[in-house]
Amino acid sequence: MTTPEQFASVRYLVDDVQAAIDFYTTHLGFTLRSNPAPAFADVTRGPLRLLLSGPATSGARATPNDLGAGGNRIHLTVDDLDTEIDRLRSAGLTFLSDVVSGPGGRQILLTDPAGNLIELFQPTR
């Protein structure tokens, strides 16, 4: 088991913790690590620990309302972007962007149920 010191942790504020757990574990290969209260859970994928904080958590209360959305997102590397897109679309998910290609690879953006960004990225081989 990975110790907390070995994880890179990212906090995402979510409206519905259970919907977020279901999204990340069902569609993106995360594993539920803990769900000690209905307002909080954390899921992991490799060395990424994603903290899912509902409206009642201290993390959500400490965030000023006027920050606006930035372009920050988690970045998940996939072996075959087209296959992942087909799999997720067939599960009823929609994407925020079209596939973008660049010198380093191809990527597409989707959002979780709370609107947090996820980038699926296939590097150029």
Automatic annotation (TrEMBL):
Q: Does the keyword Transport apply?
A: no
Q: Where is the VOC domain?
A: 6-123
- InterPro entries, per this entry? Glyas_Bleomycin-R_OHBP_Dase, Glyas_Fos-R_dOase_dom, MMCE/EMCE_epimerase, VOC_core
UniProt-listed Pfam families: Glyoxalase
- Record key words, sorted: Metal-binding
Q: Name one GO biological process term.
A: L-methylmalonyl-CoA metabolic process
Q: Does the keyword Magnesium apply?
A: no
Q: Which Gene3D superfamilies match?
A: 2,3-Dihydroxybiphenyl 1,2-Dioxygenase, domain 1
Which parts pass through the membrane? none
Under the GO molecular function aspect, what terms does this record hold?
Answer: metal ion binding; methylmalonyl-CoA epimerase activity
What domain of life is recorded for the organism?
Answer: Bacteria
Would you tell me the protein name for this molecule? VOC family protein
What is the native source organism of this protein? Streptomyces armeniacus
